[in-house]
């Protein structure tokens, strides 16, 4: 009897072996991951400097800390499933996955986690090097750093569930490109990747509170940097848990309906 | 002249090809639209908090975004797809067919593939430049227009030479498809004036990956912030860079052994 744990272990080994074959691709992907936060970091540092040292409660050093933490959290949480699922449905490569006796989501979870475990070994030193260049200032508390760990775990689960559900749109649409682009545009501004949410106008901030994006990037980042009160942290955990429950429920419903529409083209 | 005739020929083939896939127009339009939206939202949020960014006023920064789209569009319509096809040809050995043709192989490899829908970015870029000029509110004299065109031509030439050097590397490293992805993410840093970056990154974006020459310098020319020394420097580099890229290309071609050989 093979349990889920064995499945995850096996997937971990295969992913590791596969990724180590494509070392150059890893480096290229890393450059993209690093450059985008560095661009926003530099821009906001310049804004802070031109406003006499601080803007919206952020000094230049705090912007550095914010965007470097965002880089790490974004790396830990990001998924590529929205692009891959379209390919699976269009090319019919979903079919063999359906034949396996476990839900296909497990394979993706395992693959995602093992990829992150591998790349975090590179991302953390890179973040360290960048902090030498950008000199972040952090004033956090021990409880906030401790609370960051479960917040990050919930953030990974939440973003994965949301984006896996979004990817299922491929069952109904042949080209999901436009939908994905819209999603990533919304995520860029509402999750706190392009700008700390505190600097957005009030109506947009309200929108960010109501949508899930903020809870899988900005919330863990602000928590880690000690920018949240204990009450704010509790509210954040509640929002994460609530959205996670909604996303998993949606995932099950949408998957059930979508898989019935699947025509297994090419299989 | 051969160059222009060849380019025109491949533009026509490209048009005929892409007219079969009219849906791609919609996909490309959506892509350009979201690219534009993200650029403008970024500008909007930044300028809600400050009047100037390293000395650039909002309307002037719009010129940078315009040049970003314009030069990006130009390279994505013809240069990038052609060089991508060239690298694939090296990998498969089918470059033989290009090398045996009676025209210069470098020219052929640089214009062979035209993706016209990417031209939407050129239109978007020109539109942004027009809006920027109207907002800046000064009339652009002949001298400034000439400086802009010169800087734009120089920047495009420098970027072309850079991409040619990258692509030529595929003679030695066969699988290099992703190398343009690196360029793309570096290029995106050019949506902001390179003055916002710390010196080490500014140096990288000027001399290692010539994004500064491609975007910031032409935009500076248009809004009248360009010193004649920088313009002369850009033009000098635009003369030297293609020459060096050409030398490198020739070395690479000599290194190519073909598929069947």
Overview in brief:
Chain A: Keywords: Membrane, Transmembrane, Transmembrane helix. The complex is a heterodimer of chains A (267) and B (261). With 267 residues, chain A is mainly alpha-helical.
Furnish the topology, listing elements before pairings.
The complex is a heterodimer of chains A (about 270) and B (about 260).
Chain A: H1 4-21, H2 23-50, E1 54-55, E2 58-59, H3 60-77, H4 81-91, H5 94-99, H6 104-134, H7 142-167, H8 177-190, H9 202-210, H10 213-216, H11 218-224, H12 230-261
Antiparallel strand pairs in A: 1-2
Helix pairs in contact in A: 1-6, 2-3, 3-6, 3-11, 4-7, 7-11, 7-12
Chain B: H1 2-19, H2 23-49, H3 58-92, H4 95-99, H5 105-111, H6 120-136, H7 142-168, H8 179-188, H9 199-208, H10 211-222, H11 228-255
Helix pairs in contact in B: 2-3, 3-6, 3-7, 3-10, 7-10, 7-11
- Approximate shape of chain B: globular
**How many helices of chain A?**
12
Strand order of the largest sheet of chain A: 1-2
Instruction: Give a count of the beta strands of chain B, DSSP E runs of length 2 or more.
Output: 0
Give the topology string of chain B: H per helix, E per strand. Answer: HHHHHHHHHHH
Low-confidence stretches of chain B: none
Please give the radius of gyration of chain B in angstroms: 19 Å
Radius of gyration of chain A: 20 Å
What's the quaternary structure here? heterodimer
Reported for the largest beta sheet of chain B, the result is: none
What is the helical fraction of chain A, as a range of percent?
Answer: over 70%
Mean pLDDT of chain A: 88
Largest beta-sheet details of chain A: 2 strands, antiparallel
Helical proportion of chain B, percent range: over 70%
Protein name (chain A): Efflux ABC transporter, permease protein
Transmembrane segments (chain A): 20-43, 63-83, 113-134, 140-162, 182-208, 228-251
Pfam families (chain A): ABC2_membrane_6
Keywords (chain A): Membrane, Transmembrane, Transmembrane helix
């Amino acid at each position: 009897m093979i349990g889920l744990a064995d499945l995850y272990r096996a997937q971990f080994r295969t992913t590791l072996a596969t990724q180590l074959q494509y070392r150059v691709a890893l480096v290229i992907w890393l450059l993209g991951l690093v450059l985008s936060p560095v661009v926003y970091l530099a821009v906001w540092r310049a804004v802070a400097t031109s406003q006499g040292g601080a803007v919206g409660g952020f000094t230049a050093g705090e912007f550095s800390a914010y965007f470097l933490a965002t880089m790490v959290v974004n790396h830990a949480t990001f998924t590529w499933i929205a692009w891959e699922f379209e390919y699976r449905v269009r090319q019919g490569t979903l079919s063999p996955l359906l034949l396996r006796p476990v839900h296909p989501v497990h394979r993706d979870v395992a693959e995602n986690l093992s990829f992150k475990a591998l790349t975090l070994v590179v991302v953390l030193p890179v973040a360290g090097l960048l902090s030498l260049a950008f000199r972040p200032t952090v004033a956090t508390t021990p409880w906030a750093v401790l609370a960051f760990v479960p917040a990050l775990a919930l953030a990974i689960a939440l973003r994965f569930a949301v984006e896996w559900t979004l990817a299922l749109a491929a069952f109904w649409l042949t080209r999901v490109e436009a939908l994905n682009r819209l999603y990533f545009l919304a995520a860029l501004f509402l999750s706190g990747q392009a700008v700390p949410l505190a600097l957005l106008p009030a109506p947009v901030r309200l929108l960010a509170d109501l949508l899930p994006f903020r809870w899988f990037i900005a919330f863990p980042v602000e928590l880690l940097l000690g920018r949240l009160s204990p009450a704010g942290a509790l509210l954040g955990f509640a929002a994460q848990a609530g959205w996670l429950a909604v996303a998993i429920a949606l995932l099950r419903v949408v998957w059930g309906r979508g898989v019935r529409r699947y025509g297994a083209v090419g299989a | 002249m051969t160059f222009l005739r060849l380019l025109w020929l491949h533009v026509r083939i490209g048009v005929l090809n892409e007219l079969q896939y009219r849906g791609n127009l919609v996909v490309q339009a959506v892509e350009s639209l979201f690219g534009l939206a993200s650029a403008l939202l970024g500008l909007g949020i930044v300028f809600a908090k400050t009047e100037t960014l390293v000395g650039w006023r909002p309307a002037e920064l719009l010129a940078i975004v315009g040049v970003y789209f314009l030069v990006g569009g130009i390279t994505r319509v013809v240069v990038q797809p052609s060089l991508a096809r060239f690298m694939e040809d090296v990998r498969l050995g089918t470059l033989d067919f290009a090398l045996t043709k009676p025209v210069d192989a470098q020219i052929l490899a640089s214009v062979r593939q035209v993706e016209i829908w990417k031209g939407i970015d050129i239109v978007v870029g020109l539109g942004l430049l027009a809006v920027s000029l109207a907002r800046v509110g000064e009339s652009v004299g002949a001298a400034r227009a000439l400086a802009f065109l010169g800087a734009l031509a120089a920047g495009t030439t420098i970027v072309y030479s850079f991409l040619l050097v990258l692509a030529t590397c595929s003679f030695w490293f066969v699988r290099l498809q992703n190398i343009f992805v690196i360029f793309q993410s570096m290029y995106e840093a050019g949506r902001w004036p390179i003055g916002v970056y710390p010196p080490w990154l500014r140096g990288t974006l000027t001399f290692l990956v010539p994004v500064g020459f491609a975007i910031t310098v032409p935009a500076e020319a248009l809004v009248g912030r360009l010193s004649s020394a920088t313009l002369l420097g850009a033009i000098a580099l635009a003369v030297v860079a293609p020459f060096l890229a050409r030398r490198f290309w020739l070395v690479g071609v000599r290194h190519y052994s073909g598929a069947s050989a």
